[in-house]
Design a protein that fits this description.
The chain is built from one helix and three strands; from the N terminus they run H-E-E-E. By secondary structure, it is an alpha+beta fold.
């Protein structure tokens, strides 16, 4: 039982310190921010005032009028028929 608790503690610590995954344009490799929930992280898609999370930024998946956030854009994860949706990359595997 003690070994199980130690193993669980190891995985929790590893997950907490892991770098967030990133979004990139599938064709160009253009960086579109990270998938952190930290609203203070300047690179997070969750930061409503940041380049990658703002509803007004051309580089944001949250901008309904932008290339990466529009509901009818081929480059948007919000468009169900898009063929060039951004891909998620794990930083640890880069």
């Amino acid at each position: 039982m003690r070994n199980i608790v130690m193993l669980i503690s190891f995985f929790v610590a590893a997950a907490a310190s892991a770098e967030p995954s990133i979004l990139v344009d599938r064709k160009t490799g253009y960086y579109l921010g990270n998938l952190s929930t930290n609203q203070n992280d300047p690179d997070s898609v969750s930061n409503p005032n940041g380049r990658y999370g703002s509803k007004d930024s051309k580089d944001s998946i949250n901008n309904p009028n932008g290339k990466y956030g529009n509901f009818q854009s081929n480059d948007s994860p919000n468009y169900p028929y898009a063929t060039n949706k951004p891909i998620i990359l794990n930083r640890e595997n880069l």
